[in-house]
């Protein structure tokens, strides 16, 4: 589904390479995790895939179902089925959460040539999905992410993901700032979306999220490269021994 | 932030923003009212002198006292100087190079009913989406569960084309007609109140208006009457090189209520046109007036060619105890906006509110705000101003809050937010605060922010294109003000906000 090949990226503003040849193949129906120390380029990878400004791709490719992601606008990537759950979800004062969701859902449907959801249909679906994430009606009315707790923001990201039904879901440190209960809610939300046609890329510092969302493949990223790939046991190794051993081995 | 407990806060309304994007998408094109009506006009000769003033008065069939009133204003005006304190930059206006009176020839015979009005004029308003037939509703409200009826006074250049629902309003004792008609039919009311809120001597543009004012609306709500429907006036400038100088007078007797709406459009032209209006509102004990404006005069093109010069004096006098007034304005049009709808809080316990959205894009300049003059005891005022600047535009909030010695225990809350889009525009805030007693309280909060790249990326990563994303963020910014508008105006205003900012990003 997602294929990344020899991807080199630098910051546009300064001539500083961040990704130095990343390669990844993620098949439909699988969950991949990327772990790595701070500054290894994990978040940059997620931003570059989603199309954020400020990065320059100097080499390599990234495709989603064979389509070149890197030449698309962010909204085109979204309509093609890519979703990024933000590490720091953005506040939009004055815009109701529900309005935001409905605008996003209908924008994507329109881009794909599908009929827009009516207000009634939309409301039914959103209420059902919100209930599963313990998001109440009040939170749907409040302005997007404004005054939300850390846990509420992350649950809200998962609600957006559930409503948009993307093919390729990238979760950027969705576990940061979550207590145990919130982590469970978020993980349940993600697990409920797992199916044969959908793939996940879970970026995290810690093993504990992977206790709830079981990955098929675990990658270790360091200094802009994937330095080691393995099964779920690789995450446990990191948890027990830290990154030092793996990094030394990679060099 | 302290929220005043007065009755003038907007109710929260979920439905308003739900349709934002659909509405925005449905309205195509930039300035969609830029066409003109091809109709035979009768003009007074160009320029301004006593003969022109006499001619205007004569055309309206006015009594001698009004002609004298106009002439007194004229004699004062010729000695006055145009104010230049606003943060506005425009070339000298040649007041002798304007027409001060323009009337469709077909209106010469004073049609008795709308059926007799020139079809070309009716078609003009139909094209603007303004219903001049009583069974029609304002565009955009059809299909709502309880369609609300709105009475309309339609003003085309210097004359009122017609007013709807007059008979039904008359049953309730409400007078709603063109001011020229009020001068003939209700001279005692007009003579009593005209110039009592905005005196002839008030300022250069108000004095000019007193000299040459043509049509505008007159509203009289008798004591204890809640006006059975919304009243509205639509102003259309059509003729070239013609100024529009409407005058509106609203009188709300004790315990009455009215909600009044005003809309304005003009054709796209590459010369500037002058608009200098005066609105006076008199509010007696326990009465309440809501006055909403969606000002969408032609703003000029991207390079600042053409557009309306809008110099307007609007003032409400809360003459009675517990009187309330609420101004809401959405200012998207005009090349130059100079406008400060004000509240004189004379009666004890009276309340004034001013909610404003001012958008300036391209080469537009806006210097707008309000004056809250607290004279009575326990008076309250609230100001919420949202200024949006894009392109090379300059947007200034200028406001006065004045607490007089006798206005004890009075309160004001002011919130003044500016949003910048792009690098070339400016936002300025000029608050004047005078407090002359020890028991009153004034609060002022101001913010300036930019449309944030993170917000735009967040919206786009969810599938919205850049213009949708900007419309959403901006509508969120102005939401507290949009909520104060009547529903049908809120929808129109929301769409306008997006259209006014078209092309401002990317």
How do the SSEs of chain A run, as a string of H and E? EEEHEEHEEHHHEHEHEHEEHH
- Dominant shape of chain A: globular
Give the number of helices of chain B.
13
| Main sheet summary of chain B | 11 strands, mixed
* Helix content bin of chain A: 25-40%
Report the span from N to C terminus of chain A: 30 Å
Look up the CATH topology of chain A.
Answer: Rossmann fold
Number of domains of chain B: 1
Describe it:
Chain A is of the alpha/beta class. Chain A has a single domain, classed as Rossmann fold (3-Layer(aba) Sandwich), CATH 3.40.50. Helix content of chain A is 40%, strand content 29%. Chain A has 10 helices and 12 strands. Chain A has helices at 42-50, 74-80, 97-111, 119-132, 137-141, 150-164, 180-193, 208-212, 233-241, 244-250, and strands spanning 2-11, 16-26, 31-35, 55-64, 67-68, 82-85, 92-96, 143-144, 168-172, 199-204, 217-222, 225-230. Chain A has a 6-stranded mixed beta sheet with strand order 6-9-10-3-11-12, sandwiched between helices. In chain A, β11 and β12 form a beta hairpin. The longest helix of chain A is centred in the middle third of the chain and has 15 residues, at 97-111. With 506 residues, chain B is α/β, with parallel strands linked by helices. Chain B has one domain (15-500). Chain B is 22% helix and 33% strand. Chain B has 13 helices and 23 strands. Chain B has helices at 15-18, 20-26, 50-59, 64-77, 119-127, 166-171, 179-185, 187-193, 204-212, 453-461, 466-477, 479-482, 487-500, and strands spanning 41-43, 102-104, 150-156, 159-163, 175-178, 217-221, 230-236, 247-252, 257-265, 272-275, 278-283, 288-295, 307-318, 324-331, 336-339, 342-345, 351-360, 365-374, 380-389, 394-403, 411-420, 426-435, 441-450. In chain B, the strands form 3 sheets. In chain B, strands 5, 6, 8, 10, 11, 13, 15, 16, 18, 20 and 22 form an 11-stranded mixed beta sheet that branches. In chain B, strands 4-3-7-9-12-14-17-19-21-23 form a 10-stranded mixed beta sheet. In chain B, a hairpin with a 2-residue loop joins β3 and β4.
